Amino acid sequence: MRRSARGLSGLLAGSALAPVELVLVGLSVLALVTVVAVPRARSRVERVVQRCARSMAAMEVRRLGRFHQVHDLGPYDDSAAFAYLLRRWPIGALGALVVLLLLYGLAIAATMVSAWAFDGSWGYIESADRVSTETLMLATVPGALLLYINVMGLAGVVDLDVKLARRHLTPSVEEALTRRISELTVSRAEVVEVVNEERRRIERDLHDGLQQRLVALGLLLSRARRARESSLADDLVRQAHAEAELALVDLRDVAWRVYPTALDKLGLREVLAVLTERSSIPVRLEYTLSERPPAGVETAAYFVISEALTNAAKHSQANKIAITVTPTPADDERPGVLVTVTDDGVGGADVSGRGLSGLAGRVVASDGRLTVSSPRGGPTTIRAEFLCA
């Protein structure tokens, strides 16, 4: 019922836009014909027409996306937008006609039922034409048939509307391939940058953490060997043992940040539970996936959440963080996993910074989509969507 109501609302919205589109197309054609003899004025009018056509086409794209779940439109040029509006307004008028027929039929049916239920007279007609039970039963079969035809007409108008939009407002095969090649080229460059950044981060972790502890461990053992008193040597050995344990902890942390091996064995849910427990900021985790996603999606989702928690701890001054890992909406044509990380910090995150840009590169490399909302004053929301197919 909700989907039907949404489709009917989209059809009514398209019918309401049809007269506006007809007026726009008519005025555009009239203006271009009027100024055909003045090239300078013609170019100015063409720019105005293109701007208006682009705005109306953008409204249609939003309508189709909101009410009919069509999200694969664009990019398109101005001529394609004008050609689409030129052919779309009759479909909007047809949709309005079908809706009016539906309302007319429902009104007739309602008056017949009310006449049968009360006094049997239908409007102001004579008593010989009263609505009886037999008449109502005989009218039910053709009425149901007409209702079915009308509903199929509504579905047909919606389908025709969507097909016309996809014909004019989606790129051709050559344009789609060119755009995809460009996206893959950028994605490859971002993957290389992400890998290089990960190598630099691992080198910093090893140099600033583990290497320093190993140097201290070596110095302690060297002093213990040269110590003449056994008590001093024992104390130095104890210090060396403690330093070795800290070095082992640092090594495990570095290995965990490189790739948590528990992800393969336990799955994303358990690894995220461990990750949230280690966070210095209280975290609320909501995980509603019924099945484990593919390994590549799990890995990318883990690093998105891990990097988001790290950035929040360093820069956000947040008091709490909310993490949700859910399936994409059921009516979405791109089934997958939706990851959202929200903190109540000060906001103002730099999307072009090294952390978020590297995160965006990792998501794009997994054929996903990343959006960041971080206004001044907060909150900051990182939203990543991954395909499972």
Question: What low-confidence regions span 5 or more consecutive residues with pLDDT below 50?
Answer: none
> C-alpha Rg, in Å?
33 Å
> How much of the polypeptide forms β-strand, as a percent range?
5-15%
Give the end-to-end Cα distance, rounded to a whole number of Å: 29 Å
Q: What share of the residues lie within helices? A: 55-70%
Envelope shape: elongated
- Numbering strands along the chain, what is their spatial order in the largest sheet? 1-2-3-5-4
State the gist of this model:
With 389 residues, the chain is α+β, with helices and mostly antiparallel strands. The chain has helices at 2-34, 39-67, 78-117, 133-168, 173-226, 230-258, 262-266, 268-278, 295-316, 354-365, and strands spanning 283-287, 321-327, 336-343, 369-373, 380-387.
List keywords for this structure.
389 residues, alpha+beta, Heat Shock Protein 90, 3 domains, 5-stranded mixed sheet, 5 strands, 70% helix, elongated
